[in-house]
Predict the 3D structure of the following.
Amino acid sequence: MKIAIVCYPTFGGSGVVATELGLELALRGHEIHFITYKQPVRLALLNSNVHYHEVNVPEYPLFHYQPYELALSSKLVDMVKLHGIELLHVHYAIPHAYAGYMAKQMLKDEGIVIPMVTTLHGTDITLVGKHPFYKTAVTFSINKSDVVTSVSENLKEDTLKHFNIKNEIHVIPNFIELDKIRNEKHISCQRSVMANKDEKIITHISNFRRVKRIPDVIKVFYNIQKQIPSKLMLVGDGPERDNAERLVTDLGIDDKVIFFGNSNEIDQILSYSDLFLLPSETESFGLAALEAMAWSVPVISTNTGGLPEVNLNGFSGYLSDVGNIEEMAQNAISILKDDTVLKQFRKQALFQAEKFDIKNILPLYEELYRKALENSKSLIN
Ligand code: GMT
């Protein structure tokens, strides 16, 4: 099948999921065309089944805002015609589903019918999408998608609660490639760069937006390090980074916290981590938590959104109410203070992650693609 994948190419779960999905589909013989404004961060190797087409939006002084949707929909039309693409899979509703719908309409005008699968990821629904400025267009483009998927049951419920959706929403959870992780077990990385032998390594990875509650990450760690010799790895960058650096200094723990910024060495860092912190305000899924669990790292998270579908309380880690820093720190300490307990949680975290192995998830997408294609063909005949 020839599939166009539209996604955000930057550091962020939806782009990671879209990229990994495309790469795996390519390995299974599909021809994949990534269409976005920059090469996706994890799209390192282009094989003969993987193509990347850049969307350019030239600057023009008249435009206060550059019309990205317009450029994207034009590019989609051109690429579909040039490469005979049969299906569009857009990740993150805003503005991708909208641009995809416009492309479909333009193509229809030329006698080309192409189905569009829209995958909802999180803030395209929970924070941004439901804002009155966007809601009408988001509702429209979800309803005009041929197939809609969401990454968790919770996100599906939120979508049905906030929007007037007429389409069925299929839940297909995010995934990880466990085989890749197993093969990388021996990647070289010096643990000593991060911590001393007697110190535990605690990690947080995100795009440092407010929703991630970075101050809670730091405060939970502050409480942990009073009892357990440890270091905090903060991986990622975003609007909250400066505040985070200030808070670390105010708490006097500069020598215990490493800011990595956007790193391509996430696997290396996770491979040495003992605990992962994700105290988000909301999280439709929490891909970073799943990646940690796949590296046998237990997770201390909040219990909001789709997190309880990923992290199991008392099994792969612990879940607390948003802002309950004390409890999160206590739970973390209870895991870290006893190596036997830590070992057990590590095992259980991996066990839970195995449910989300790409091998179990990818066929679910392929099945939906097949149905979408069949339906669109029956519309032509
Ligand atoms: O919606 C966002 O905040 C951005 C998005 C992203 O591109 O990283 O994150 C969402 O999608 C991820 C992949 O499906 C999920 O793992 C994240 O939980 C989700 N973020 C939120 O819901 C805050």
Observations:
- The first strand starts at residue 2 and ends at 6.
- The mean pLDDT is 94.
